[in-house]
């Protein structure tokens, strides 16, 4: 009886002399007749569910270490390989290795061909590896992937946000990456922060998309060589890509337009009028500002040395772009900025 975890050494010994071993080396078919384990197994006395290939090698025990000489004890086939009886198992070889002399045993080896089982095992291993790989992939979600800015004005930044959430079991490293043949991942009028980062499982992070039309970008938008349209790529390291679409309605402005273009625009630039056939002598926007200053601002102290308030500057620009009349505050019968 064996308790759980116990083991037992079973020894089948046959009395045989060294001379008999030498004789058997040339008559391997007779080895089967004297190996007690084989005789007991054939009689269904032991290991009924197991089988062994035919032994064709001399006893593997007991040698003087470092030599091929048996010592004074009885030689024995005590190194054996048995397998559970199965039609799908084909024995290909069964041999000892007398060239290895470190021990008093000669190692024994066997090779097998596992019919049909190989494909099943291989498929199970592939499925297990695929499952492990899939479970190790980063996984995240975006609360939205489309950002639409209603009206975009020069020097009036607009901000929208998306939220990236790590819904997988591993850390997510993310980064916005350029599109093919691009050096930057977004157009110059767009600023995205943070552009890269790391999220632990269960964490989320807001990402800001700021559309800001500056002196460097307004000319291309005014001339319609560029539009408030872009697609940015958010990459998960070793994972998938997200594509975020950004679009908006840019409102043309006279600021950033060449004077040579403005003299051909007879109406307010915001209405996107067609160019007139006859150019104006000076752009109407410059004429309106000079005329207003001449009538209401000549006595304003520090008119050209003290910066105006940003809100007033935005208002003046809006009047110039839309054609609306100036409605500025009046002090001592003098309008000022």
Keywords:
single chain; 337 residues; alpha+beta; Immunoglobulin-like; 3 domains; 5-stranded mixed sheet; 4-stranded antiparallel sheet; 7 helices; rod-shaped
Structure description:
- With 337 residues, the protein is α+β, with helices and mostly antiparallel strands.
- The chain has three domains: 18-113, no CATH class; 140-250, Immunoglobulin-like (Sandwich); 259-335, no CATH class.
- 22% of the residues lie in helices and 24% in strands.
- The chain is built from seven helices and 15 strands.
- A hairpin with a 2-residue loop joins strand 14 and strand 15 (334-335).
- The longest helix has 20 residues, at 117-136.
- The chain is rod-shaped.
- Residues 142-250 form the OCRL-1/2 ASH domain.
- InterPro entries: Endo/exonu/phosph_ase_sf (IPR036691), Ig-like_fold (IPR013783), IP5 (IPR046985), IPPc (IPR000300), OCRL-1_2_ASH (IPR048869), Rho_GTPase_activation_prot (IPR008936).
- Residues 36-110 form the Inositol polyphosphate-related phosphatase domain.
